[in-house]
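Illustration 12: PP2C family protein-serine/threonine phosphatase.
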Amino acid sequence: MNTNVNRFLAAERALRTAAPHRLVEEVRRVLTESYAVEGADLLMADYGLTVLRPVGGEREPGAETGLHNTPQGRAFASQQPLLEETGDGRVLVHLPVSVRGDRLGVLSLTAAADRCGPDAVAEWSDLAQVLAREVVIAERDTDLYLRARRRSRLTLAAEMQWRLLPGNSRVHREYAWGAHLVPAYAIDGDNFDLSADDDRLTVTVTSGMGEGAEAAQLTGLTISALRNARRAGLGVADQAALADQAVFAHYRGRAHLSVLLLEFEFGTGRVQVVDAGSPRLLRLRSGAVEPVEFEPQLPLGMFEETDYAAQEFFVEPGDRLVIVSDGVHATAPDAERDGLRALARAITTTRLLSAAEMPGAVLRVLAGHREITTPDADALVLCLDWFGR
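Figure caption equivalent — predicted structure in token form:
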């Protein structure tokens, strides 16, 4: 076994055995002692995906780096290493920190220019992915990395919602997806969930009623009921029926929740759908955007023992599906809030972006490039690129 492999395995072992709250210190020690790197910072993307914030780094507390139009932000968006010359014989190397396409942040290194060859950068990139995996595991034991993601305090409802979410993006052989929620620090009832096994992918997008912690509790109950039914091996119609019963049993019709349930078959592209409320689905195929319409059914929890029926359609390799909650339309210009024209244009405008980057860009386009700080309602955009098998 060669020296480089031994060195990497030793670095991986050091991170795996480090205390959860000391991962940054450990990766910095490994890089300086084993790779002659002069400094290292871990920057985490904030919940709103607007800035990168340091975790226990050498910068002053609270320092932030913009995600747009900065070298660190470009490395985060492209998911590729980016080298930045400093002019003094050193290079800043910005490495994506991600797990299976879920983008957590950037590891920024300072090293002498003559040590930044392709093999070294590739090895550092692999180490950044090891760090990402360990950060995800460490979040079970420490709040350090979650605190770094916060530009301001989350509302209680937002705290409840973010702990339900499966992340912001993923990349797999058959598909890639990304999602964005606003207001990130005060989201109430909108949510999404995804789960895949060997032959199918299930996607759930919910749009809850009410505000604050009560809306989050309603969504939490619904997501848990849907997961319980899905993990029992039930189809989307039965998942909706059991979640409907759970919500009605608790609220007796006083509260309900809209949901769009989709189950994709990898081998055929067949999609089973239950449309129980307001989330809308649009498809970008061959450059054209069109809504995919379904027979509407009752939101979950309105009545006792509602029956749900699955409908179906087919996706093709190269399709991009975009699911939006009803709050998305509130971000469009006033003259077009009654239709899908602005949303269709935004989807077309952002068609060259990755699935991870597209949802946030759509919301910015709809807001007329204004920062969305206090939208009229929760807004959720989920993008799914289908590659097929």
